[in-house]
Design goal:
By secondary structure, the chain is an all-alpha fold. It is built from eight helices and no strands. It has helices at residues 10-41, 45-91, 93-106, 111-124, 126-135, 145-169, 175-197, 202-227. Helix 1 (10-41) runs antiparallel to helix 7 (175-197). The termini are far apart. Its main location: membrane. This is VIT family protein. GO terms for molecular function: manganese ion transmembrane transporter activity. Pfam families: VIT1. It is a multi-pass membrane protein.
Length: 228
């Protein structure tokens, strides 16, 4: 009898969504930098377009492989943390109990309540409790590296399409400034969403993303002008 696949937790879904947003953001930024740089060096539309396509393909593979390796590395670190805690519970249970209790008490919980809460949780699942309190993740809740890689593999070229179409379809006298504007709008959106997912300041996160995009395009454009 086939076992039912365990549904993804909210944290796992958020991690895959994060990979999607960052993939789209990198796609916008990377390909925008490439096509604007080439446009600074030449007015040949085919050369600009093919350079953007090459950047899209290379970036898609790079992002997918990078996400796969990154998530697997994180999983390896988490497994090592679990092994460490398993040994610590076997050899120093009282110290682990005290660590959890003191951590709860430090948040302002009354000592007797901290003691009671720790006792109940350690009785139920000491490994999950101590791993969570020491390392900040839940045992068994791992991001699927394939899901993260596929999310990046789809989102990177999706983000790349915007600067590629802007630089290719706009009139020659408008395509650079038009691409700048389109990329700034897109980066504002991805920066805002990334800040929400990362629980960061949304204004600062969006501004940083936009500034990074503007600087990238300016640098590559002027380098293109220099070698033209």
């Amino acid at each position: 009898m086939k076992s039912k696949k365990k549904p993804a937790t909210l944290a796992q879904k958020v991690n895959v969504l994060r990979a999607s947003v960052m993939g789209a953001n990198d796609g916008i930024l990377s390909v925008a930098g490439i096509v604007v740089g080439v446009a600074g060096a030449t007015t040949n539309s085919f050369a600009i377009f093919i350079s953007g396509i090459a950047g899209m393909i290379a970036g898609t593979v790079s992002m997918a492989m990078g996400e796969y390796v990154s998530v697997n590395t994180q999983k390896d670190a988490q497994r090592k943390a679990i092994e460490t805690q398993t040994t610590a519970l076997d050899d120093h249970y009282d110290e682990e109990f005290a660590f959890v209790r003191d951590k709860y008490a430090a948040t302002g919980i009354a000592p007797e309540l901290a003691e009671q809460a720790t006792r109940e949780m350690m009785k139920q699942d000491p490994l999950k409790t101590t791993v969570r309190e020491h390392f900040g993740f839940n045992v068994g809740e791992y991001t699927n590296p394939f899901s993260a890689a596929i999310a990046s593999m789809i989102s990177f070229p999706t983000g790349s399409i915007l600067p590629l179409l802007s630089i290719s379809l706009l009139p020659k006298n408008l395509r650079i400034i038009g691409t700048f504007v389109a990329v700034i709008v897109a980066l504002s959106i991805t920066g805002y969403v990334a800040a929400i997912l990362g629980n960061a300041n949304r204004r600062n996160g969006t501004l940083r993303n936009v500034v990074a995009g503007i600087l990238t395009m300016l640098v590559t454009y002027f380098i293109g002008r220099l070698v033209a």
